[in-house]
Design a protein that fits this description.
It contains 16 helices and 24 strands. By secondary structure, the chain is an alpha/beta fold. The chain has two domains: 268 residues, Aldehyde Dehydrogenase, Chain A, domain 1 (3-Layer(aba) Sandwich), CATH 3.40.605.10; 189 residues, 3-Layer(aba) Sandwich (Aldehyde Dehydrogenase, Chain A, domain 2), CATH 3.40.309. A seven-stranded mixed beta sheet has the order 14-17-18-13-12-20-21, sandwiched between helices. A six-stranded mixed beta sheet has the order 9-8-7-10-11-23, with helices on both faces. The chain has a three-stranded antiparallel beta sheet with strand order 5-6-24. A hairpin with a 2-residue loop joins strand 15 and strand 16. Helix 3 packs across helix 7, helix 4 packs across helix 5 and helix 10 crosses helix 11. The structure holds nicotinamide-adenine-dinucleotide.
């Protein structure tokens, strides 16, 4: 029986909120309340920020050798590997995603991210410049200070880890505000970090409403940087709120990623890839391949394969290890998805698979794996992020048209190209305006490969050595030798 952590985590301890208010977090697959979680307000945030500042301004966190910081993250990684089933179960209860994904993919990936950045802790070198005989010039990289991490509900712990791991490895303190619908694994992780030896003050978790706590974080003079993942519109409001204190910000925002299949592709591999691209994570994925762009001559052959696979993807109990399509995160999200499906039908797209809400045992926010054909770039379902298991299929005549359609949205997060012609694949990969392009693959990640957006999908990069830039600042030092 899981005992959930439901209080705020501030300065090394679980504490109730100052207001005493709590909010319910619900299992979307059953509609049942899992736990009542303490709701942070701005006074709780102030306490967390004050403790974080103490930690980096002369506290034990600041005094620690970087290598020791790295060891703590390695230890946390090992603990998380050992607890992957338990963390995965809670993630599945809170989010509705299949336990196969949360326990076997998300948690091991989160642990790998911790371990990857743990290795960087003492390997951040500065430069020296042989510029002048009368002085020695050098640079050092220093932590930014207090990092405010604001995260979404689709990969609750993994998405947070992309921020927490590099920020802590490089000596920052972190105040994390998880999405209100999925706060539980972040709170569990706070306890795990303490067990790994993280001193009080270095990490805090303050679940609460985005427009209150998130906004206050963006405005807070004690927070030096905001690292945000979420919707593009929320990102814009955070940018405005952060301007008052000239905070550093990085933004991982929405997407409407094109998955381009040329006529010379391996059609079975491309069909499998297209299914994985849109239905992994129930399509609640920033990088979801939500637009399938198919060359006209293979349209019928590919679509038949895709529709056949989609029809076999029945939603199932997220706790069943065989399930590959879980429950959407909430009833509200299911209604959003249903509205988009209606708009697709109304605007003339042809439904070839799914399209309906489903319940299991009379419960849950499940939705069928849905495929539209005959979509044009002007339709709402081709332009807007649906964030659900809905694929829009568009047809193109040649490479130039594929690129033009691919680049025709405000987003630029990810894309893929399927072709056996390496030159054509690479030309297309270059021409697509996206932060990540897969070739003959989709949805593969590695902690060493940076991830982030072009255009309105955001700026800044998470993971890889690029993330080190996001959590450090450069100091130039001039040493007079005369
Ligand atoms: P959201 O923008 O609604 O919420 C994200 C976080 O911001 C939550 O913690 C929320 O409480 C907080 N928030 C809400 N209003 C706020 C405000 N006014 N000020 C400060 N914080 C506020 O996004 P979501 O619905 O949780 O997540 C889905 C979105 O996230 C999708 O658009 C998806 O594409 C995007 N996403 C992007 C990436 C990426 O890496 N680019 C990854 C995952 C999700």
């Amino acid at each position: 029986m899981t005992s959930f952590k439901t209080d705020l985590f501030i300065d090394g301890a679980f504490v109730p909120s100052a207001s005493g208010r709590r909010f319910a977090t619900v299992n979307p697959a059953t509609g049942e309340t899992i736990a009542e979680v303490a709701e942070a307000g701005t006074d709780d945030l102030d306490r967390a920020v004050a403790a974080a500042r103490r930690a980096i301004d002369g506290g034990p966190w600041a005094a620690m050798k970087p290598r020791q910081r790295g060891r703590i993250l390695q230890c946390a990684a090992e603990l998380l590997v050992g607890a992957a089933e338990e963390f995965g179960r809670v993630e599945t209860l809170d989010n509705g995603k299949p336990i196969f994904e949360s326990a076997k993919i998300d948690m091991p990936a989160a642990a790998e991210c911790l371990s990857y950045f743990g290795e960087y802790a003492d390997k951040l070198y500065g430069d020296t410049f042989p510029a002048r005989p009368d002085a020695m010039l050098m640079t050092v990289r220093e932590p930014i200070g207090v990092v405010g991490a604001i995260t979404p509900w689709n990969f609750p712990l993994l998405q947070a880890m992309w921020k927490i791991a590099p920020a802590l490895a490089l000596g920052n303190a972190v105040v994390l505000k998880p999405a209100s619908v999925t706060p539980l694994t972040a709170l569990m992780f706070a306890e795990l970090l303490a067990e790994a030896g993280l001193p009080p003050g270095a990490f805090h978790v303050v679940p609460g409403p985005g427009p209150v706590v998130g906004k206050a974080m963006a405005e807070h003079p004690g927070i030096d940087k905001i690292s945000f993942t979420g919707e593009t519109e929320t990102g814009k409001s955070i940018l405005r709120a952060a301007a008052g204190t000239v905070k550093r910000v990085s933004m991982e925002l929405g997407g409407k990623s094109p998955n381009v299949v040329f006529a010379d592709a391996d059609l079975d591999a491309a069909a499998k890839g297209a299914i994985n691209a849109i239905f992994y994570g129930k399509g609640e994925l920033c990088s979801a391949g939500s637009r399938l762009l198919v060359e006209a001559s293979i349209h019928d052959a590919l679509l038949e394969k895709v529709a056949e696979r989609a029809k076999k993807m029945a939603p199932g109990d997220p706790l069943d290890p065989k399930t590959r399509l879980g429950s959407l995160v909430s009833e509200k999200q299911r209604q959003n998805v249903a509205r988009y499906v209606e708009s697709g039908k109304k605007e003339g797209a042809r439904l070839v698979a799914g399209g309906n809400p489903v319940s299991i045992g009379g419960k849950g926010a499940f939705f069928e794996a849905t495929v539209f054909d005959g979509v044009t770039p002007q339709m709402t379902i081709a332009r807007e992020e649906i964030f659900g298991p809905v694929l829009a299929t568009l047809t193109f005549q040649n490479e130039a048209e594929a690129v033009a359609i691919g680049n025709s949205t405000i987003y630029g997060l990810a894309a893929a190209v399927w072709s056996k012609d390496i030159k054509k694949a690479l030309r297309t990969a270059r021409a697509l305006k996206a932060g990540t392009v897969w070739v003959n693959a989709y949805n593969y990640y590695d902690p060493g490969l940076p991830f982030g957006g072009y255009k309105e999908s955001g700026f800044g990069r998470e993971r890889g050595h690029y993330a080190l830039e996001e959590y450090t600042q450069v100091k130039s030092i001039w040493i007079d030798l005369t």
